[in-house]
Design brief:
Elements (H helix, E strand, L loop, with lengths): L1 E5 L4 H12 L3 E6 L2 H13 L3 E6 L7 H9 L4 E4 L15 H25 L3 E6 L12 H20 L5 E6 L7 H7 L6 H15 L6 H13 L9 E2 L5
Parallel strand pairs: 1-2, 1-4, 2-3, 4-5, 5-6, 6-7
Helix pairs in contact: 1-8, 3-4, 4-5, 6-7
């Protein structure tokens, strides 16, 4: 299958790319960082993966749709790319930064989903979300609320697509020791809001609530395979492993 992974060159997205590449899928990985994409492509090919890389910024709502159209469509879209957004009391953070998070996390994801659906005869769309989109994450509201919106968008699209063999699933990979959560554990700052979030993040790690990256990537691979298509519109979590 042809699988497009946004943000697939770094951090958790890279782990996703490695496990899917090892399973023989044709990977298309995107991101903003051309050097990171080139390095990931080289390393993945050395591991035997069939992969192509493309620079496509989710902050540009036209970039990923243009790529999908140029490819003639994809079988699976994994919307993994996202911004963490500003940290602090919502009424105090930079409003432009707050809305920029939605431009990437929600609008960029929605644009990619729409483009994939327009080209798919069958397949699946997997939106990587977070428990913060189900419950809350005070002081990180742009991230939390944008992920909640992605979950709700997936629920609605699944109903709209119920007469077509296209599944739409949200996937919460758990808290993993990479990317946003790793940076949250050790911020290089004296900012009290960042330190508050860091203290909470470290407490979750110290209490054993982090999920191994390999486990997160393994469950994503099962979703890509179609194992959970019957739950279109639903949220897949580590409880499903």
């Amino acid at each position: 299958m042809r699988v497009l992974i946004t943000g697939g060159a770094k951090e958790l997205g890279r782990a996703f790319s490695e496990v899917l590449g090892a399973q023989g899928h044709h990977l298309v990985i995107t991101g903003r960082d051309e050097k990171a994409l080139d390095a990931a492509g080289t390393e993945l090919r050395a591991q035997g993966a069939d992969v192509e890389t493309h620079v496509a910024d989710l902050g540009d709502p036209h970039a990923t749709p243009k790529l999908i159209e140029s490819l003639g469509g994809v079988d699976v879209l994994v919307n993994n790319g996202a911004l963490g957004g500003p940290v602090g009391p919502t009424w105090e953070v930079d409003e432009n930064d707050w809305w920029r998070t939605f431009e990437v996390n929600l609008r960029g994801t929605a644009s990619a989903m729409n483009a994939a659906i327009r080209t798919m005869t069958s397949g699946r769309i997997i939106n990587v979300v977070s428990n913060a989109g189900v419950h809350r994450w005070p002081y990180v509201t742009a991230y939390s609320v944008s992920k909640a919106a992605v979950i709700k968008l997936g629920e609605n699209l699944a109903v709209e697509l119920k007469r077509r063999p296209i599944a739409v699933l949200s996937y919460d990979p758990g808290m993993v020791d990479t990317g946003l959560m790793r940076r949250g554990c050790a911020p290089h700052t004296d900012d009290p809001d960042l330190l508050r979030v860091s203290q909470w993040t470290r407490s979750q790690r110290d209490e054993g609530r982090f999920t191994p990256v390999e486990q997160s990537a393994g469950l994503l691979a099962r979703i890509v395979s179609g194992e959970f298509d019957h739950r279109s519109g639903g949220l897949i979590t580590q409880k499903d492993h």
